[in-house]
Amino acid sequence: MFDNIAKTNLESLGEFGLIAHITSAVKFKQPTTVKGIGDDAAVLDFSGKKTLVSTDLLLEGIHFDLRYVPLKHLGYKAVQVNLSDIYAMNGVASQITFSLGLSSKFPLEAVEELYSGALLACEKYHVDLVGGDTSASAQGLVISVTSIGHAAAEDIVYRSGAQEGDLLCVSGDLGGAYVGLQLLEREKRIFLENPNIQPDLEGKDYVVERQLKPESRKDIVQLLADLSVKPTAMIDVSDGLASEILHICHASDKGCKLHEDKIPIDPMTYDTSREFGLDPTVCALNGGEDYELLFTIQQADYDRIKNQPDISVIGYITEKSAGCELISKSGKVHPIKAQGWNAFRDNS
Ligand code: ADP
Ligand code: MG
What we know:
The chain is of the alpha+beta class. The chain is built from eleven helices and 14 strands.
């Protein structure tokens, strides 16, 4: 691995040399950042707002495969995945910390690639990288990102606020990241069998991008604010629509009806899942990693969102005793089950 890039041994730099090197490009732009990198802790000031904190741990071989994930994309995605949790609280993401465990196979240039992706995400989403930790790891790459944000107390949206009669909505489209993963896994298998065959991802850019370079939905949080719509409950779609719907229903002590024919699926996702013999709806329900926002709104807000191309109404909230049900295209009723991440792994 890393055959085609220059190699500078990390040992020659040492921990402090590495930290100084990778953080030299970091700039602080957020007014809420009082002190960023360089002391024992960052200092932030949210002047009266509530602070939001979320963290994720990403392990090589469990969460990502460096045989087809470029390091720059990985850095970008690691940040996006984490910011998504702040947006799912209806908050403003303002800082992250980025921590690394590096095994001896990683040269400085690999770390630079990873960081360039992370910093690109920070720049694009107006987030300051205010710290982290750096350590050797016995095996493989470990990344941990913590994101920090803020919101006025009355703006925060929890998973638990859905009420009977609320509309169930989702941003963007679903299933693409999972289908993209199937393609990348297939090309990896072909490559491992015959390294002379080049990957064939022609015409599949959208689904591959959904897997490798997801975008968290800061824009949807802004859109809802512009429309004066405050969701009653919200969660981001990391483990698949089914799992996230159940989280909202359990936290809110409610049931729901989800209409299969309303689930937004991109045509490329649809066609590609069919090529793999997969049901596109199952990819949306159980695939995960779409990082869209799933939320509930009061019926009275329907007129405000009904013409938004990036928001789909996919069902509604019921009383708990009615259960959580999917109404299929043919009108059959199925209980919604979360397969989420486990099924996602078993199937790949
Ligand atoms: P400590 O000994 O207190 O853990 P470090 O020497 O690890 O301090 O870190 C010094 C500074 O560099 C701190 O501000 C820390 O947040 C920052 N830092 C360390 N590793 C990283 C990293 N991977 N990315 C960004 N900042 C980092
Ligand atoms: Mg440290």
